[in-house]
Automatic annotation (TrEMBL):
This is Uncharacterized protein. Residues 350-485 are annotated as: Disordered. It comes from the Bacteria. It comes from Streptomyces candidus. Residues 350-359, 393-423, 455-475 have a biased composition (Low complexity).
Length: 528
């Protein structure tokens, strides 16, 4: 299960997680429920026939800044602050009361910096915290250790973010600021080698390169960088020699796109890995905010499917099944604990209501905006229902209102070649078919249909040489046995590949991979 719930903070472009956190295996979730000063922890069970919530209140309401994180065994880690100390406990239901197991504390006052929980670690039995000081960043194991909180590593520099790169919980990616604070680069931290740090992303010398999401199965990486001249969302493959791509399909007018979940089980097929993104439109001057809605995108599908979020969606949260069904948690007064199941078009299939070919504008360029159909009845009296919701016969109240659509006059930069049947060419070729399947568990579900944006051409990229050698697929898998070899052998230079960007000259990306595992016969991932 790959789920990384992160959102853009208003300051400095850093990222943080929302208040609803899903366990690494997708079995549980936790959040602070309630309103105002009456806040209490709440655990959601997601892997049963129907989702349900269990409140875990303490003797007094929780203070602002309290964090919760679910473990795979059903217990909930809670992080509180009091008098310059960070207190950690495990909560669990005991009949009508709440059981609490104190784990210990860390003395780290606000004058020294900030301490926050990292996203759930793979395996679901451990939890880590990041303590950011003036000049260094400390990594703490706060749950799952033998003797309470344990200091794991000290990383030079001020770090933020936190994305797990493997399924064992060994390799962690952090966004580290330069000493002068002007540049941010992602680095990989090896927790089993005392916090050994290796560069992970270096697209341009003075660019801010942050890793937002990583899928260990396919190697797909979602990156935010200003190397193209402005902050853009791009993708690459861990260990690949192909360039990082910044497709126009991930650029929607004045909206901000933030990925939060990737489809698991797509082994060695990053082009087919579906990614869920949160879409936020910047409010106009003096106007109301437009809220958040959902987008689904694949590297091999040259479009962004914009979907209506369910009413009460907890923005920036969700998880995928291996079959490609997106599950979005929501909470309303009528349904305080619910999960909406989003049916997304298969890779390469047109969205409901779309034709085989994109709509063309007068100048011959493809439309990248999705305008609501005229005359379509609105679900909430103001916005039209998505096509799949209209065609599937969903009962009233079982479909969420449609979210905003991309503004007219999208990011068209020129026409695409069109085949005899009017369809766009499919450049990427999957490396292999993913053989892994698992029956998905559903709860209180609402079906939500997709609405696709029109495909837009990708930023210009350097032409690949026909004689390019096959891709080396790498994954940060720890070596077995006590006599393990270093993650990055000495003397091996980092990989240098070009980056697609709207710039006069192509930039370069440097992706240093901790462990390089050649896979015979594996081709490189193409981009769109």
């Amino acid at each position: 299960m790959t789920a990384c719930a992160i959102e853009t903070a208003p300051e400095g472009g850093a990222v943080r997680r929302p208040g609803f956190t899903i366990a690494a295996d997708g079995s549980y979730a936790a959040r602070l429920a309630g309103e105002g000063e009456a806040r209490f922890p709440e655990r959601w069970t997601l892997d049963g026939p129907e989702p349900y919530a269990v409140p875990l209140p303490a003797d007094q309401p929780e203070e602002p800044g309290t964090e919760v994180l679910p473990l795979a065994d059903g217990r909930v880690l809670i992080h509180r602050q009091a008098a310059g100390r960070h207190l950690f406990s495990l909560l669990y239901p005991t009949g009508p009361a709440t059981g609490q197991l104190p784990l210990g504390s860390i003395e780290f006052g606000p004058e020294r910096g900030t301490l926050t929980l990292l996203p759930p670690a793979p395996g679901g039995s451990r939890a880590y915290a990041l303590a950011v000081g003036p000049h260094t960043t400390a990594l703490w194991l706060v749950a799952g250790g033998a003797f309470g909180p344990e200091h794991v590593a000290e990383v030079p520099g001020r770090c933020a973010g936190g994305v797990w790169l493997d399924r064992t919980g060994r390799m962690l990616a952090l966004d580290r600021a330069s000493p002068d604070g002007d540049v941010v680069k992602s680095v990989a931290v090896d927790l089993e080698r005392g916090g050994e740090v290796t560069p992970l992303l270096q697209i341009a010398e003075r660019s801010d390169d942050r890793l937002l999401l990583a899928d260990p199965d396919s190697g797909l990486l979602l990156i935010r960088s200003d190397a193209p001249g402005e902050d853009r969302l791009g993708w690459g493959v861990l260990g690949s020699t192909r360039p990082v791509r910044f497709p126009d399909s991930l650029r929607v007018g004045d909206c901000t796109l933030t990925p939060f979940a990737a489809q698991p089980g797509q082994v060695l097929t990053p082009e087919s890995c579906a990614v869920a993104v949160r879409i936020d439109r910047a409010p106009t001057a003096g106007g109301p905010a437009h809220g958040s809605w959902v987008g689904v995108w694949r590297p091999s599908d040259r479009r962004l499917h914009q979907l209506a979020a369910p009413e009460g969606w907890l923005p920036g949260t969700g998880l995928w099944t291996r079959e490609g069904v997106l599950r979005l948690p929501f909470a309303t007064r009528e349904v305080p604990c619910g999960v909406a199941e989003v049916c997304v078009p298969a890779d390469g299939e047109p969205a409901a209501g779309d034709g085989a070919a994109p709509e063309r504008v007068a100048d011959g360029g493809p439309r990248s905006d999705a305008v609501p159909d005229a005359g379509v009845p609105a679900l909430d009296g103001g916005r039209p229902a998505p096509p799949a919701a209209r065609d599937s016969g969903t009962a009233p109240g079982g479909t969420a209102p449609a979210g905003p659509t991309a503004p007219a006059g999208g990011d068209s930069v020129g026409p695409d070649p069109v085949g005899p049947d009017g369809s766009l060419p499919r450049k990427p070729v999957p490396l292999q078919q993913a053989p892994l399947h698992r029956t998905s568990l559903t709860g209180r579900l609402h079906r939500i249909g997709p609405r696709a944006t029109r495909p837009g051409p990708e930023a210009a990229t350097p032409a690949a040489s026909p004689a390019r050698p096959p891709m080396r697929t790498a994954a940060p898998v720890p070596p077995a046995g006590p006599a393990a070899t270093p993650s990055v052998p000495s003397g091996v230079p980092p990989l240098s590949v070009p980056v697609s960007a709207h710039a006069a000259a192509p930039a370069m990306v440097r992706m240093t991979v901790p462990v390089v595992v050649p896979v015979p016969g594996a081709g490189a991932a193409g981009g769109t």
